[in-house]
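Write out the 3D structure for:
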Amino acid sequence: MRTRCIACSIAAAASLAPSLHAQCPAVARAVLTASDAQAQDRYGYSVAVSGDTAIIGARHNELFGLTQLGAAYVVERNLGGPNTWGERKLLTPSDLAAQSEFGSRVELQGDTAAVSRTWDPITNNGSIYLFERNLGGANNWGERVKLNSDPSYGPSGLFAQAFDFDGDTLAAWSLSGVAGQAGEVSIFERNAGGPDQWGLTSHVVLPEVATNSTWIASVSLDGDTLAVGDGYPYEAVYVYERNLGGAGAWGWRQTIPPVWSNPGQFGASVAIEGDALLVGAPKAWYFGGPALTVNCGLTYVFERSGIGAPFALLKTLRPSQPHPSASFGVAVEIDGGRAVIGASTDSQPVNNQGGSAWLFERDFGGPANWGERSSLIASDETVNDHFGTDVAIDGDTVIVGAPLRGQSTNTNNGAAYVWLLQGSAPESYCTAGTSFNGCTGRR
């Protein structure tokens, strides 16, 4: 049974020590599910938010009789009532195909949304679709263009396994067949090749070659800086800058190696904002405290003095209560000096691999410190929900995906959870099941 945490509201605790916040996890303001929810949809596998609009990926959604076609849902705040998140549009690709897993990754910025699928029957590779608000009618989200890898650079695979876009630039990772198996990033820009088109303008081949075709990659783009994570097999992060080496070129600035000898898939997730860079290592071991915590996961904060300067390690983040095999750092996002970190296989005493997410803030606990503000939990969490598989933050809004929610009833239809932050911390009271360090809460 979940109970309200007595005298531990996050707002009331704002002036107390960071450890108290960790003892009092916050509860979601809204729970989002698909209007056409079906078993095995994986709704919440990917999430993104921009202003009052969010997009939720359901990569295994079955539509039109096509198994694992996938879908993405556009939802809006205040649609259907004040502070209600209503479903605006169900997105699918114009060229439908079974097993395409459309919605595997989603990104959203303003009036433009990007959605990837892992398999395209035409190219036998992944692809990315750009949608725009009001294209095809007021409040409609119409498909603008489809992006594929460029065969002129040689055969590639896993295109769009990871991608990000910022403003008028989109960066997509793929596996190149040139000179062995090398990671590469294709750079697309809006209006390149014609009005409203997204043309390929640059190409970056990462400094790595391997025969292993299984990769864990991540991409984050902010202004003129691109961070590419290689969580497996190389476990490193590569930093590139626009116009380094020539106008329009993306030149290599820095390679960031693992911090510890146990990399733990260092680079499996990355997020950059300004001069701050988050790097997730979801399989890293935590050596602090009374005992070794295996595969709990860590997240590293790197900062630089400005573009052109190297990133240096500032802080190692971990949850205040690390659990074995929690996958802390499997998803990371940053906005406005706040970081949200997913731990999708975190297990508490009742809900094995139910998952969790964590909110950190810069300067909380001291200048240049990144202090833990709160853990985030699903109030209806059950076993194997994998809450924290993906996370998103924009301004005061946080969204966390739980794509396996419903496994206890053998549905796995999934859900996404929304928080509204007040000042720096989640507005809701902490809840849940067991007492820890004097606070009746899950942590």
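Residues 1-28+264-443 form a domain with the Methylamine Dehydrogenase; Chain H fold (CATH 2.130.10.130).
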